[in-house]
């Protein structure tokens, strides 16, 4: 019986040696151009002021928040008691953090509106500057920024919002 099992799997336990020319070669990666001199001295691990070349300067990437976008965001945030800017919708969240905040609000029976930041890149970039918060979801309560998922999970939403 052992012989028939071996016959059914003739290469079981055997090693097959391939010549180097037959082995799959890793793809070659083109080298990226060297960073500009102004950026080379910056380190993500240390504050910019600790480096002499970056002293007195700060590096910040801002999306231009137009006055029209600011007015629209003010109107949306001000016209709803609870607004969640999230990835996806409340019925179909597109990330786990957005899903978590939706579940928290639903468990408290809080009526809330959502806006999908994935549907509009300008909205997504503008919100980062509007709230000074780089990630999503972003929860607004009574016209004020409340926080993201971590803050929502870590704090109790006041009972006044559950009415």
From TrEMBL:
CDD domains: GRX_PICOT_like. PROSITE patterns: GLUTAREDOXIN_2. Residues 82-145 form the Glutaredoxin domain. GO terms for molecular function: 2 iron, 2 sulfur cluster binding; metal ion binding. SUPFAM superfamilies: Thioredoxin-like. Signal peptide: none annotated. Gene3D superfamilies: Glutaredoxin (3.40.30.10). This is Monothiol glutaredoxin-S7, chloroplastic isoform X2.
